[in-house]
């Protein structure tokens, strides 16, 4: 499918997630990316990291990704060239971290700490055109922003595994009902599927209530 161009809005917010076919963000005992990352996908990740956007993330994702980025920058990290470039490149990207437990100053370069309401802070950032923005992991943050109607794009990379026994972090638990209009799709390495949508948060099943647009601050 050929995607339509993204809106020319500097304040656009994208929720960006990787997911197993059965809806998990990770699985116990499995390697990162479920061991299915390929050169085409990793090269795309590296290019995505060069896009001009601000990354939004929570405390747990901050701790995980800052540690991986630092490890990838060291000697003998064990990461492939593309993996290392994708991880180390995150240090140069502007990041806003929402947490009531972390303390400023944050050690990962270009990271700003916000201790108050993420929904209120992001609404103000969008109002002032300080974007574009993209989430990184951070499932509860992504859910809150979507529920609040702040998300303009919802993008998934679906990995072809079912981890019913070992899956962890169910992505859609606690989500509202959401209608999705597909605007882009592609396949990486013959097995990973990228799906990009415009979301509309619903007040109930179609026909029962009027759908509320997810945007429009």
Description:
The protein has five helices and ten strands. It has a single domain (13-201), classed as 3-Layer(aba) Sandwich (Dihydrofolate Reductase, subunit A), CATH 3.40.430.10. Strand 9 and strand 10 (192-201) form a beta hairpin. Residues 1-8 have low confidence and may be disordered. The protein is 24% helix and 28% strand. With 217 residues, it is an alpha/beta fold.
Overall CATH class: Alpha Beta
Radius of gyration: 17 Å
CATH H level, superfamily name: Dihydrofolate Reductase, subunit A
How many helix segments? 5
Summed over residues and divided by their number, the pLDDT gives a mean of: 86
* Terminal residue distance: 30 Å
Strand percentage: 25-35%
Summary?
The protein has helices spanning 39-49, 59-73, 81-88, 118-127, 139-147; strands at residues 13-20, 24-27, 54-58, 95-98, 111-114, 133-135, 153-159, 167-170, 178-188, 192-201. It is α/β, with parallel strands linked by helices and 217 residues long.
Name some characteristics of this structure:
217 residues; 28% strand; alpha/beta; globular; Dihydrofolate Reductase, subunit A; eight-stranded mixed sheet
Give the helices and strands, then pairings.
Blueprint (H helix, E strand, L loop, with lengths): L12 E8 L3 E4 L11 H11 L4 E5 H15 L7 H8 L6 E4 L12 E4 L3 H10 L5 E3 L3 H9 L5 E7 L7 E4 L7 E11 L3 E10 L16
Parallel strand pairs: 1-6, 1-7, 3-4, 3-6, 4-5
Antiparallel strand pairs: 2-8, 7-10, 9-10
Helix pairs in contact: 1-3, 2-3
């Amino acid at each position: 499918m050929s995607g339509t161009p993204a809106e020319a809005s500097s304040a656009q917010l994208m929720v960006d997630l990787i997911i197993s076919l059965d809806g998990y963000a990770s699985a116990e005992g499995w390697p990162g990316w479920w061991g299915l990352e390929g050169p085409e996908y990793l090269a795309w990740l590296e290019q995505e990291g060069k896009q001009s956007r601000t990354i939004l993330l929570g405390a747990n994702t901050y701790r995980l990704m800052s540690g991986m980025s630092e490890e990838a920058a060291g000697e003998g990290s064990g990461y492939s060239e593309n993996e290392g470039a994708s991880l180390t490149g995150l240090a140069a990207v502007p990041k806003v971290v929402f947490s009531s437990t972390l303390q400023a100053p944050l050690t990962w370069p270009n990271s700003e700490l916000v201790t108050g309401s993420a929904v209120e802070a992001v609404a103000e950032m969008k109002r002032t055109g300080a974007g574009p923005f993209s989430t990184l992991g951070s499932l509860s943050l992504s859910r809150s922003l979507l529920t609040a109607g702040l998300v303009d794009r919802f993008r998934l990379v679906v990995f072809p595994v079912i981890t019913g026994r070992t899956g962890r972090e169910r992505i859609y638990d606690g989500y509202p009902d959401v209608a999705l209009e597909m605007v882009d799709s592609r396949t990486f390495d013959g097995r990973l599927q990228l799906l990009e949508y415009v979301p509309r948060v619903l007040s109930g099943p179609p026909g029962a209530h009027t759908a509320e647009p997810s945007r429009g601050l």
